[in-house]
Specification:
single chain; about 140 residues; alpha+beta; 7-stranded antiparallel β-sheet; 3 helices
Length: about 140
């Protein structure tokens, strides 16, 4: 199965990076339009991307300041049963190394290829949000 694996440094406190990838408020600033849920293993996260895209995922791992992982169970066919994970490691005094994984894709089709590009764009927005305080409105994120 193909996976999406991306790494990037973020100049921000690790607590802020973890909050941005593991809470609805944080996710809504750079990825989702309307997320809801608690970062607690076994709970459901709602991932809203507009009217036709109300997805659901289960929190499979949450280790504060270290790891947050979701298993998607209600979404487009290609996303179902995939896992989205954020692994954080401090690097020096002011840098967090983010290792991103979106694993379990059924095949490397067009949706996979589009998602590879989208994740790179979204993670760039995440970094700019944390480092510069830049907020990109949801409707403009893929054009940022």
């Amino acid at each position: 199965m193909p996976d999406i694996l991306l790494d990037l440094p973020i100049r921000a406190p690790i607590e802020q990076v973890f909050e941005a990838v593991s809470t609805p408020r944080g996710l809504n600033r750079w990825w989702t339009k309307t997320a809801a849920g608690e970062p607690v293993p076994g709970t459901t996260f709602q991932l809203g991307f507009g009217l036709r895209f109300e997805w659901r995922a289960r929190v499979t791992r949450c280790v504060p300041r270290t790891t947050f992982e979701l298993e998607v169970y209600s979404a487009d066919d290609d996303w179902r049963k995939t896992r989205v994970a954020f692994h954080l490691k401090p690097r020096g005094l002011d840098v967090v190394w983010l290792r991103f994984e979106h694993t379990g894709w059924p095949q490397a089709n067009e949706h996979y290829r589009t998602s590879c590009n989208c994740w790179a764009l979204y993670l760039r927005i995440l970094r700019r949000t944390l480092e510069l305080g830049e907020i990109v409105p949801y409707e403009r994120r893929l054009d940022a």
